[in-house]
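Lecture 7 notes: from sequence to structure.

We start with a single chain of 469 residues. Read the sequence below before looking at the structure.
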Amino acid sequence: MSHNHCASILSLGLKIALAAMTSLVIPLSSGAYANPHEFKLANGLRLIVKEDHRSPVVISQIWYKAGSIDELNGATGIAHALEHMMFKGTERVPGGAFSKRIAAAGGRENAFTGRDYTAYFQQLHKSQLPLAMELESDRMRNLILTKEEFSKEIQVVMEERRLRTDDKPHALVHEKMMAAAYQAHPYQRPIIGWMNDLENMRVRDAKEWYDRWYAPNNAILVVVGDVKPREVFALAQKYYGGITPRPLLPLALRKPQTEPVQVGIKRLTVKAPAKLPYLTMGYHAPTLRNASADWEPYALEMLVGVLDGNASARLNKELVRERRIANSAGAGYDSTARGPGMFYLYGTPSEGKTTSDLETALRGEMEKLMLDGVTEEELARVKAQVVASHVFRLDSMFYQAMQIGQLESVGLSYRDLEIIVKKLQSVTAEQVREVAKKYVKDDSLTVAVLDPQPLEQKLPFAGSGGLRH
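Now the structure, written as tokens:
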């Protein structure tokens, strides 16, 4: 059975908010009725349970603190390749049976790989939570990896790379820009991996990755829904409690990987078949390390909102609607990550305009903001969106679980969610201007331009393996 596979590139950041072993039964949450509730099993598995009794549904997610950031040169893409292999079966649950059993129970399941983590999830009726835990705990340790299955699946991964990156000009430009912007940090490598590494990947690479990282003491189990925390803990103890931990350094003790300071602008041109040119500009920026003490990441989030948060935000209003320099223009920022961050400006020039014209216009908008600052009205609008988005996110059990898992997997805490929203609301207009002046500067800038080539140059691919749908 083909698995409905969600691959790879999840960078939620603070937009989601916008949007030592211990004994067995110690709830770590403060207050007897705290929600979420936190537990830790003797083997190191952390369990975070959030009650939401609005419908008889449960979301179960297991997050492994291992993503493309942990890969080595020559084996890029192995985190994502193993994610595919996790659906190939165990002795008790042979290939394809995992997905069939979840579907037969009326549920849905999938997985995703990011730079900082790999996660697997199920959404089911609350009565089926034991099934989700039984299946997921089984493949945490008992996955069967064969040469035959791996050689077939790596073809699927290579096809996915072709479809999602090689044949998508904007994705290709972003990949090349990241590779140039980072000199030493593993964020320079694509999550899906370089094609040459995929071509030379073997089943032993997957086995080594699995044996190294897939362990209870490197995982967080997040359960959100119509559940009772103690009962969820009892289930976790039953299904996961017997799995042996592995010798692993916790996140905080892994080797720091600090990107050397960039000392001048970098420029690159990417030639690819496309209809229109495209421009992306990436500036090195900090990420959130301490939710209470930091302020710059929150101000950078607000800067993105002022530039690109809604139809009346600056870039759309000035460059697209009024001056018609761009067909589209936007801003972005990676605010939560285990590694360093990046602030982006990007866009497609309108007909008769060049990427150079667009770059000049984007620079002009940033200079204007640095000179004149942002208005209280602009900031108030963005803050209102932050609160609305956060409330909207909380309406979804799935995104409540995503918030918890993503924050925990990058070294922050689910307890930070409330702090994050408050800190975003407390950002001042002067702070927004200050981070723009500090981080939007040429010394830390990488500019990538798409030089569109005639579409007929594109050769049809005739290879084996198809992307699963």
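The chain is about 40% helix and 15% strand. Keep this in mind for problem set 3.
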